[in-house]
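WP5 quarterly update. Target: mRNA decapping protein 2 Box A domain-containing protein. Source organism: Taxus chinensis. Length: 126 aa.
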Amino acid sequence: RFVLNCPKEDLQSFERILFLIEYAHWFYEDNAMEQNPNLKSLSLREFTSLMFQSCAALRPYIAHIDDIYKDFTSYKVRVPVTGAIILDESYERCLLVKGWKAGASWSFPRGKKGKDEEDHICAMRE
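Structure tokens (predicted):
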């Protein structure tokens, strides 16, 4: 659904492929696990390994998964993010979000910009 049905240009780099796998991971954690309580939570690293094992197009690269994943995590921290400060009508309260992992902090809603995405579009999406 997330990798096999994507535009061809998204399959031309491991960075783009791993972003697609990350979207699939979020879907798995947010939806599939909720529908099937027998599924266990997986780290993105574990999920990526399973995707490389399960997907015929990715299987030839499984021997390089450690380097591919390391390069992706290094790349990911350099991707710009955009967000918004959302206030109520009285300007007295603002919206904060908190990650679901242990030790996550509160922040304004934000997210990574998609390829060629404009700042205001990313902020609205987030």
